[in-house]
Amino acid sequence: MRITLFIQNLKCSGCGKTIVSALKTVPKIESTSVSTENNSVSFNYEEASDLNLAEETLSRLGYPVDGTSNTLLKKATSFVSCAIGRMK
């Protein structure tokens, strides 16, 4: 199944690179794309547990799904993730 998630703290293509790279390591998550214009990430997944793992990965990177908690720590983490993505 394909899903598009709207996420928080997405700022630039550096963020997008970090997200794509991290989701490549999640089993059964494929064809990931990021839209900085829409603050969204799209990907294919097989089961609900795969989707949950992808959402947890996004949150850990500092990009929680819209409607979920966006703490100061997650906002700060997103800046670090962004900087890492810019260096790739």
TrEMBL record:
Q: What is this protein called?
A: Heavy-metal-associated domain-containing protein
What is an example of a GO molecular function annotated in this UniProt entry?
A: metal ion binding
Occurrences of domain HMA (ranges): 1-66
Q: Which domain of life is it from?
A: Bacteria
Under InterPro entries, the record lists: HMA_dom (IPR006121), HMA_dom_sf (IPR036163)
